[in-house]
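REQUEST FORM: STRUCTURE PREDICTION
Request ID: SP-0412
Submitted by: Lab K.M.
Chain count: 1
Length (residues): 82
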Amino acid sequence: MFRNAVQPWHLLVLLVVCLLVFGSKELPDTARSLGRSVRILKSEARALHSEDSRTDGGKDAGTDAGTDAGTEAPAVMRTGSP
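STATUS: Completed
RESULT:
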């Protein structure tokens, strides 16, 4: 259904529409801020991935399957009277 949906001339039309809407002065600023946002997103995703692999590797290495001596129990939220 979406095979060959985006043709090169579609991109050209999109570029012309963006140029008309934003103007030639705003396009470089918009592209620059979009690039910064993508760079920040990539670095945060990379940091999150490295943090996950660090915690997963350390947790499984020193504990037995039945006991979790190195981990804390999850907090229990109570609503109402005891």
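NOTES: DSSP finds one helix and no strands in the chain.
Reviewed by: T.R.
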